[in-house]
Design brief:
The protein has about 200 residues and is an all-alpha fold. It has two domains: about 100 residues, RNA polymerase sigma factor, region 2, helix turn helix motif (Rna Polymerase Sigma Factor, Chain: A), CATH 1.10.1740; about 90 residues, Orthogonal Bundle (Arc Repressor Mutant, subunit A). Helix 1 crosses helix 2, helix 2 crosses helix 4 and helix 9 packs across helix 10.
Length: about 200
């Protein structure tokens, strides 16, 4: 059977039996989501690359040390490791956010719809994306994290709860307060977020 058709659990079993090829398949399968999550948190592609590699190194060490529970969903477990590394990074730097020119570019605007826009539509779209991102960045860290995981990383509230180590109700509550805060900012600043 082709390794790409095997489940994560099957590949993990093969890795534990000594198959490095199984781990290569797992890395290829999950690296994009791990990288995207980290990039959304750190806003720096080089740092995201480093932290992604560190995530997989830590995961491999943990697997070899028997620290992975079969009851966990492998992807959620990887994202939890990535989350902890991001938190550790920011603790070491003693600030939560780095500013980078890369944060408002390619990934958000590289869509088929964007390529069909004329110059005026593109300018309006870029302004709306920048305003939304500034509003999200202005949220308290716990609310910002839930918004980014839900809307940018497309994770379920269960996955968000697992990654952030809170209950689903807490994750939902943070999202609720984030949306209330975002609506309040839109109303206070009389923003038009249509394009």
């Amino acid at each position: 059977m082709n390794a790409n058709n095997r489940s994560d659990q099957e590949l993990l079993s093969e890795f534990k039996e000594g198959s490095n090829a199984a781990m290569e398949v797992l890395i290829k399968r999950h690296e994009r989501r791990v990288y995207t999550y980290i990039l959304l948190m750190v806003h720096n592609s080089h740092l995201a690359d480093d932290l992604m590699q560190e995530t997989f190194v830590k995961a491999i060490k943990s697997l070899r040390g028997g620290k992975y529970s079969e009851s966990n969903r492998f992807q959620s477990w990887l994202l939890r490791i990535a989350h902890n590394l991001v938190i550790d990074y920011f603790r070491q730097k003693s600030h939560y956010r780095e500013v980078s020119n890369e944060e408002y570019g390619v990934d958000l605007l590289n869509t088929p719809r964007f390529s069909e826009m004329n110059a005026e539509q593109r300018m309006v779209y870029e302004r709306v994306i920048a305003e939304i991102r500034m509003m999200v960045d202005g949220l308290p860290p716990s609310q910002r994290e839930v918004v980014m995981l839900r809307y940018y990383a497309d994770l379920s509230f269960k996955e968000i709860a697992d990654i952030t180590n809170v209950s689903i109700n807490t994750a939902l509550g943070r999202m609720r307060y984030a949306l209330i805060n975002l609506k309040k900012v839109v109303k206070e600043k009389n923003l038009c977020l249509e394009y």
